[in-house]
Specification:
- With 369 residues, this protein is α+β, with helices and mostly antiparallel strands.
- It contains 9 helices and 16 strands.
- It has 3 domains: 105 residues, Helix Hairpins (Orthogonal Bundle); 81 residues, Urease metallochaperone UreE, N-terminal domain (HSP40/DNAj peptide-binding domain, Sandwich), CATH 2.60.260.20; 106 residues, Sandwich (HSP40/DNAj peptide-binding domain), CATH 2.60.260.20.
- The protein has a 4-stranded mixed beta sheet. Strands 11-12-16-15 form a 4-stranded mixed beta sheet.
- Helix 2 packs antiparallel against helix 3.
- The termini are far apart.
- Bound molecules: zinc ion (2 copies).
Length: 369
């Protein structure tokens, strides 16, 4: 599960209405203070990462708006959140900092974390409302069984890389406006692995990982909606040299429904009710997303009237108040009446003072014919 995110404005020490320039200035000052190359306090690196995330969100107008609207909930929240369309804690880490520090990100090159993966998942409205257990199939890189991740053909061993002497990293110093940085980068010869392979494993071609199709079954919480994503920690690509695996992000899409229209957690539908029931009152079976429920129609209900069934919409994914179900009734006009039924209706019309010949009757009188 993702770490609890702090308020980004507080982190950067700016007001909620701070300008882009204010945010940039605040970030620069703090980033300089907490950069791991300058600050050896044990929590400096974490603080630095938090600052980068906060800056990445607040310096982008669209992301900032989403953050203002959804707050922390916009991030992975117990695995579910109103996603930004990408892992906010992933690739962005270095983007801005590299720009003005001249590419000074340090990393542990021999261990490379596996990539995060994306999988799109379609849900019906029924599944979104009730929650569902779904099985998905996707491809990911897994540690090669044949060579156990070493990349060398069984019976042979990888050679220590001559360029980095097995460390996987090349260290160098760089002068920038903010001072001298000692940085390490992945060794170009062995791509950070510390070894070179003379006889590569046939299964993985020496990469130590092979692509495999996996099946996962997971619970989708009730209240899921299009645009949300679920993070499955460690279910992405395997890492290199024992590094941790990436995550799998499920992007959810809820299909349109024939009857119900969804707006947030509220549902809207129009249902036919017979003319006698509307007139005399009665009870109907009102459709719910999953199932039905008795609904009392009071005497003299007009077509177009909307009944609101409190809490009968979609449950809230974060356990807040569920949505409502709004059912608008329209009078169902009967067709294929028998002769007897027609006569009954005729007599009924006449009792109201209507004549059903030509243009006369209710509308006829209304327009003075
Ligand atoms: Zn292999
Ligand atoms: Zn090397």
């Amino acid at each position: 599960m993702a770490a609890q995110s702090k308020d980004f404005y507080e982190l950067l020490g700016v007001q909620r209405d701070a300008s882009g320039d204010d945010i940039k200035r605040a970030y620069r000052n703090l980033a300089r203070k907490f950069h791991p190359d300058f600050n050896k306090e044990p929590d400096a690196a974490d603080k630095f990462k938090e600052l980068q995330v906060a800056y990445e969100i607040l310096s982008d107008d669209t992301k900032r708006q989403q953050y203002d609207r959804y707050g922390e909930a916009a991030f992975a929240n117990n695995g579910a959140g109103q996603g930004y369309g990408a892992n906010p804690f992933g690739d962005m880490f270095s983007s801005f900092f590299d720009d003005f520090m001249g590419g000074s990100r340090s990393s542990n090159a021999t261990e490379v974390r596996g990539d995060d993966l994306r999988h799109d998942l379609e849900l019906t409205l029924e599944e979104a409302a009730a929650g569902a257990e779904k099985t998905i199939k996707y491809q990911r890189l897994e540690t090669c069984d044949t060579c156990d991740g070493s990349g060398a053909k069984p019976g042979t061993a990888p050679d220590t890389c001559s360029q980095c002497r097995g460390t996987g990293q090349i260290r160098f110093s760089q002068n920038t406006l903010l001072g001298t940085f000692h940085t390490t980068q992945a060794c170009p010869r062995c791509k950070g692995r510390g070894v070179t392979i003379t006889s590569p494993c046939n299964t993985c071609s020496g990469t130590g990982r092979s692509r495999r199709t996996v099946e996962k079954t997971m619970k989708i919480p009730a209240g899921a909606d299009t645009g949300m994503r679920l993070r499955l920690g460690g279910e992405g690509d395997s890492g290199v040299n024992g590094a941790e695996a990436g995550d799998l992000y499920l992007f959810l899409h809820v299909q349109e429904h024939d009857l119900f229209e969804r707006r947030g957690n509220d549902l809207f539908a129009t249902i036919p009710v017979s003319f006698p029931t509307l007139t005399l009152g009665g009870t109907i079976q009102a459709p719910l997303v999953n199932g039905s429920e008795e609904l009392r129609i009071p005497e003299g209900t007009q077509g177009g009237h909307t009944f609101t069934l409190k809490g009968r919409g979609i449950p809230d994914i974060r356990g807040r108040k569920p949505g409502d179900l709004n059912l608008t009734v329209h009078a169902a006009v009967p067709t294929h009446l028998t002769l007897e039924q027609k006569e009954l209706l005729q007599r009924f019309a006449e009792s109201l003072g209507e004549h059903h010949e030509g243009q006369k009757g209710f509308f006829g009188r209304l327009f003075g014919h």
